[in-house]
Amino acid sequence: MPAVAQDSDGLDTLELPGISNYAPPHDIRPLASRNASSVTLSAQLVEEGEEVARGMIWRIFKPETDSQGKLPLVASAQGGTSVFELEPGSYLVHASYGRAGATKRISVGREPQRENFVLNAGGLKLDAIAADGGRIPPDKLRFAIYEGGSEDDSDRALILPDVQPNTVVRLRSGIYHIVSTYGSVNAVIRSDIRVEAAKLTEATVEHHAAEITLKLVRESGGEAIADTSWSVINEAGEPVKESVGAFAPMVLADGQYTAIAKNRERIYQMDFTIEPGLNREIEVIASEAAALDPESID
Question: How many domains is the chain built from?
Fold first, then answer.
């Protein structure tokens, strides 16, 4: 009988050790003995689909906890279909395929046997572009994957943080909430995406943002003034970014902003607009017209 993710029989309440898709366990198999039986484990993405040939992590546990309250690991392997030599008895088998998995209780007898797992899993590959269709540098783009089905973001369970673009993530079929972050300030796009079993879902979001670099200069086209403290506030008067240096690079969502630069007890300010996809340098001129009274700044 195939096993399905979130098996019944109380297995979904078991606290199995965490599984990492990036640090799979070493191949651990018990030595064969005269009493051991051959157990073949295989998995499919969907019912009656082809067997998964690679990317599986198999872990076999004794069903009784040890003195530390943990399930003893009997054997593990990675790859596709795997064969284990196990002593007769009861075991818990966990099949992991990325972030998709299934747990099944098996009873090993004297005869060879085969156990199949149906994972109901698919793949998700994420990317993003700028509003003008331009490519966003991968090192400035990250994704987070949350459980879907909730209207309240605080109720969503985080599944994977810091996912790099164009990385295939293996997930159970279902709806997921995706958060795409361009830069580190406020360029954030949220969307719900459905992952289908045995399919690779590719999704590209569009960021309405731009990369800018602020610099304080004495005249247009002049050298940036060092030791400058920067503060950027949005249209609602909320601070969104602070930094120190001659240059203040950042990615901002489209909208209206005010840049405030402080250098040697002098404070200058300038309003500016972010247009989607328009990457540029923005100069704040250190002139009397742009200067502010320091006592007027909280």
Answer: 3
